[in-house]
Write a structure and sequence with these properties.
Elements lengths: L8 H14 L22 H18 L1 H7 L3 H15 L7 H32 L5 H19 L2 H11 L12 H40 L7 H15 L2 H12 L3
Length: 255
C-alpha cells in the first residue's frame, strides 16, 4: 500500500503563522499585560475604610480552615469516622475524601442554627450599614461562643484559665475567646476518642472470636483480619451502622 500524502493546509497555516510572527511592525507586535500594585491618594476617608474591610475579609478567608476545625463540630465528626474505618479494618474504604465530605456536610447541618443567628444578628445589619464592623464581629461571636460553651467541659476551661493566669470570671461573658477555643478543642478530642473506643468494642470482639477459632483449628498462617472482615461488614450492615452512628453523633451536639 502506498502512503497517503499529508494534506497541505496544515503546512500552509504553519508557514503563515511564522511569517506573521516574524514580520516587523507595531500592528503585529505581541503585547504582554502588566500588574501594578501601589498606594495612591484617597479622595475621601470612605475609600480607605473600604480597602481595610477588603483586607480584613481576605484575612478571615485565609483563616477559614482553622475556624472550621477549631470552632465547629467538624473535629469530633471526622475523628469518629476515622476510628470507625480503623475498627472495620477496611483500610481506605470509605476513602478519606468521602469521610471528610460527610463530616463537612454534617457540620453545616449541625451549625445551621448558629450560622442563621450570625446572619440575622451580624451580617444583615452590617450589610445594611446599621452597625459597624466591630459591632458585627461582636454580635457574630455570641452564637458561636454559646455553641462552644455548650460542648466544653468545665475542667478543660479551668485548665486554660489557670494557664492564662487570669482572675476567675464571674460569668461566661468574661471568658475570653482565646481561652475558650483551646478548651473547646480538647473537650472535642476527648469526646471523639470516647466515641472511637465505643465503636471499636463490637468489632474487637469479632476479631477475638475469629482469632480464637482459627487458632483452635490450627490455621495459624491465615490472617484473622481476612476472615473477620466479612463478618464485621455483615454486622455493620445488619444493624444499619451509618444510621446509628450519624444519628448518635448529631444528637451528641444537642441537635
Amino acid at each position: 500500500m502506498r502512503n497517503k500524502p499529508l494534506p497541505a493546509w496544515p503546512i500552509l497555516i504553519g508557514l503563515l503563522a511564522g511569517l506573521i510572527l516574524l514580520c516587523p511592525g507595531e500592528s503585529n507586535a505581541v503585547t504582554l499585560p502588566t500588574l501594578q500594585i501601589g498606594l495612591g491618594e484617597a479622595q475621601n476617608p470612605k475609600q480607605v475604610s473600604v480597602l481595610i474591610e477588603i483586607l480584613l475579609l481576605f484575612t478571615v478567608l485565609s483563616m477559614a480552615p482553622a475556624i472550621l476545625l477549631l470552632m465547629t463540630s467538624f473535629t469530633r465528626l471526622v475523628i469518629a469516622f476515622s476510628f470507625l474505618r480503623q475498627a472495620l479494618g477496611t483500610q481506605q474504604v470509605p476513602p478519606t475524601q468521602v469521610l471528610i465530605g460527610l463530616a463537612l456536610f454534617l457540620t453545616v447541618f449541625i451549625m445551621t442554627p448558629v450560622f442563621s443567628e450570625v446572619n440575622t444578628t451580624a451580617i444583615k445589619p452590617y450589610m445594611a450599614e446599621q452597625i459597624n464592623a466591630e459591632q458585627a464581629l461582636q454580635e457574630a461571636a455570641k452564637p458561636v461562643r454559646a455553641f462552644m460553651f455548650k460542648q466544653t467541659r468545665e475542667k478543660d476551661l479551668e485548665l486554660f484559665l489557670s494557664l492564662a493566669k487570669t482572675p476567675k470570671p464571674k460569668n461566661k461573658e468574661e471568658v475570653s475567646t482565646a481561652v475558650l477555643i483551646p478548651s473547646f478543642m480538647i473537650s472535642e478530642l476527648k469526646t471523639a476518642f470516647t466515641i472511637g473506643f465505643v465503636l471499636f468494642l463490637p468489632f474487637l470482639i469479632i476479631d477475638m472470636v475469629v482469632a480464637s477459632i482459627l487458632l483452635s483449628m490450627g490455621m495459624m498462617m491465615l490472617p484473622p483480619v481476612m476472615v473477620s472482615l466479612p463478618f464485621k461488614l455483615l454486622l455493620f450492615v445488619l444493624v444499619d451502622g451509618w444510621y446509628l452512628i450519624v444519628g448518635s453523633l448529631v444528637k451528641s451536639f444537642g441537635v
